[in-house]
Design brief:
The strands form 8 sheets. The protein has an 8-stranded mixed beta sheet with strand order 28-29-31-30-32-33-34-35, sandwiched between helices. It has a 4-stranded antiparallel beta sheet with strand order 1-2-3-4, with no helix packed on it. The protein has a 4-stranded antiparallel beta sheet with strand order 5-6-7-8, with no helix packed on it. The protein has about 650 residues and is of the alpha+beta class. It has 15 helices and 35 strands. The protein is globular.
Length: about 650
């Protein structure tokens, strides 16, 4: 039922609906003492929550994500002073300019991922963000902030929608100077801190080629070395004129920190951890040397190489698991913002140059309600074909961990992974579901990143095959341990996770009591055929793992793994939700699936989100998504629901 909250009778109806919260009906929950039911609005919209703190390069100012009234904003203040300035903007990310004068935000207001560069002078409270790249139908990426300058390096597909050319953009005037033309196969441009192009990466066939510029601007680029397209080399930053820091698995299974010679490709191994890939490495601006490294074997692992930094961060540690991450530093490497992230949210601190006690800055939505939230534990099990699979289990508070209704929450990608303490959509949803009374199981199925190249490559050809078997084996593990009620398990996912939810409903309908698909794929061949033009250089991954729809035999196999052609196999209710502006998984993927289900006489609920795309940025859409989720799951699993949330009264206005 959809209600027009602008209608005169809406307020009276709202008062009636406000009392529609329901208690759990599942026996394992009804006899327990679940914690306080946290309102949906607390998970999706909070005027008190803050995040993404960034210190300016000169170490004098802070910027962070917050609100202005009821809208998103980037807030700015001078360190040590109380006065704040708010610049309304819903940004995907933002940074300081190298001269500390401007805030640079990357945003796509409609959710279509045509990101543009928005700029505002940080010291002018009367200023507003200005779009410095107002090119309709194009996508802009921020490549590099130039030290001490009001210039940045950006990449845009304005000239050719399939590839990106690098430009030098002056933030003050908007002047845009092209630095090079993409010949059609460059997937990465490497600029140093002065803005000079030092390298570029060509993706051709099954090869990656690193090229270096010639001795003069007119000289041709030359190939220095090459490697397999399906090995990973992630360039971090230039160490000096001859070498670059990188995370690489060339000739090995896992990503390690290496120092790589630009002219020969020779790698010097520097640091690695057992069993898993390195996630990231923090480099010093002054020393250009590694300061700390991050990995996620189960709980977070942080290795600090700089002894002085180790001592400064030690005061933020306690006896509970947490990931302590430096999120920004000034040019001296002395003033920094630090995020301390647990499974129940993130708190931010400022470390000043004087080495004094950390200054608490703010906390995220989850951290504000952490007392009502629960813990997450790393788990592992052996798949039916003998592969060790890792994941996470979150159990609701206040009830015995026996025979619980459970949600299998499947991550997207599939070249991604679930993590223990990440602050994001999956973490928020995980805690929301646990608060409603559900056990939440997350499985890093084969194909997930983080566990080495061999583990990822075991997913080749295994969409709707062994990748899905890993999920089913995870459910069986939870049932065998007595945690999950085998008759009350739902599958929920977004993007690839949404595809998995549809596969669960159409390939293994006997396992799940219901399914929720958010921006999910229903037709694999159409996903590739309707991909954005700038996906072209990356489609080799899809063809390798899933198939090429231009090949008739491979297309037949892709269709056989596509849920849209198996709608008649569905046995249980399905909730499908999709952003109308999704550029990756087009809305047609859900529309066709819903049409097929309805023609087959199946129980399906369909919700669309205006103004959003592949994942919601707008809190009113997230409010709607969470409300539909809790009501849907209460019916099929027997958890609790909060009923109408009074934020729904005003959500239409935003």
């Amino acid at each position: 039922m959809f209600i027009d909250w602008k209608a005169p009778a809406a307020l009276g109806l709202a008062l009636l609906l406000a009392g529609c919260a329901s208690s759990p009906t599942h026996p394992s929950l009804a006899s327990g003492a679940l914690p306080e039911l946290v309102p949906v609005r607390s998970f999706v919209a909070s005027r008190e929550a803050t995040g993404a703190y960034r210190v300016s390069p000169d170490g004098r100012k802070l910027a962070w994500g917050g609100t202005s009234g009821l809208t998103g904003a980037i807030r700015v203040k001078t360190i040590g002073q109380s006065e704040e300035r708010a610049f309304p903007m819903r940004a995907r990310r933002f940074v300081w300019s190298g001269d500390s004068r401007f805030i640079v935000a990357m945003a796509d207001p409609s959710g279509n991922e045509d990101t543009q560069v928005y700029v505002v002078p940080a010291d002018r409270p009367d200023a507003s963000f200005v779009n410095r790249t107002p090119f309709a139908g194009t996508k802009v990426g921020l490549t590099r902030v130039i030290e001490g300058s009001a210039d940045v390096i950006v990449e845009t597909n304005q000239r050719d929608r399939k590839v990106f050319d690098p430009y030098r953009l002056n933030l003050e005037t908007g002047r845009l100077d092209r630095l090079a033309i993409n010949p059609g196969s460059v997937g990465w441009w490497g600029a140093d801190s002065t803005g000079r192009l030092r390298a570029r990466l060509l993706l051709e066939g099954d090869q990656s080629r690193l090229q270096l510029p010639g001795p003069t601007p007119e000289a041709a680029w030359r190939t220095a070395f090459s490697w397999s397209r399906f090995e990973s080399v992630r360039f971090l930053d230039f160490a000096d004129e001859q070498t670059v820091w990188a995370l690489s698995n060339r000739g090995r299974d896992r990503l390690e920190l290496v120092k790589l010679r630009l002219d020969t490709g020779e790698e010097t191994p520097v640091f690695a951890v057992p069993d898993v890939d390195l996630d990231n490495v923090l480099l010093g601006k002054q020393s250009r040397a590694p300061l700390m490294a991050y990995a996620m074997p189960g709980y977070p692992r942080v290795d600090v190489f700089d002894e002085s930094l180790k001592q400064r961060l030690a005061v933020l540690k306690d006896d509970q698991p947490a990931e302590i991450a430096v999120t920004s530093k000034d040019d001296s490497d002395r003033v920094m913002t630090v995020a301390v992230t647990s499974d129940r949210g993130t708190r931010y601190h400022l470390l000043n140059a004087d080495g004094g006690a950390p200054v608490f800055l703010g906390e995220t939505r989850l951290s504000l309600i952490s007392a009502a939230l629960t813990s997450t534990q790393p788990i592992d099990f052996i798949s039916r074909d003998g592969l060790k699979i890792h994941g996470y289990l979150t159990l609701p508070k206040g009830v015995a961990p026996r025979n619980l209704p459970m949600v299998l929450l499947v991550h997207g990608g599939p070249w991604a992974r679930d993590r223990w303490g990440d602050e994001g959509a999956a973490r928020t949803l995980q805690q929301f579901l646990a608060n409603r009374g559900y056990a939440v199981l997350q499985v890093n199925y084969r194909g997930s990143t983080g566990y080495g190249r061999a583990f990822m490559e075991k997913a080749i050809g295994e969409f709707a095959g062994r990748m899905h078997d890993d999920l089913i084996d995870g459910v069986r593990w939870a049932v065998a341990r007595g945690v999950a009620d085998p008759e009350r398990v739902a599958i929920y996912g977004a993007s690839y996770g949404g595809y998995s939810a549809l596969v669960g409903a159409t390939f293994t309908p006997e396992t799940f009591a219901c399914a929720i698909d958010v921006v999910g794929v229903s037709d694999l061949a159409r996903l590739v055929e309707t991909a954005p033009p700038y996906w072209g250089l990356g489609l080799a991954w899809w063809r390798r793992y899933v198939g090429d729809p231009a090949n008739p035999e491979q297309r037949r196999l892709m269709d056989a793994k596509s849920p849209v052609y198996r709608a008649d196999q569905v046995q249980k209710p399905i909730l499908i939700m999709h952003g109308v502006n999704d550029p990756r998984v087009k809305l047609e993927q859900s529309e066709r699936m819903v049409d097929a289900l309805r023609k087959a006489g199946k129980n399906v609920e369909f919700v669309t989100f205006k103004g959003d795309g592949h994942g919601n940025q707008r809190w009113p859409n997230n409010l709607t998504m969470y409300r539909h989720t809790e009501d849907f799951l209460a019916k099929c699993l027997g958890g609790r629901t909060s009923g109408f949330d009074y934020y729904q009264l005003g959500a239409w206005a935003f």
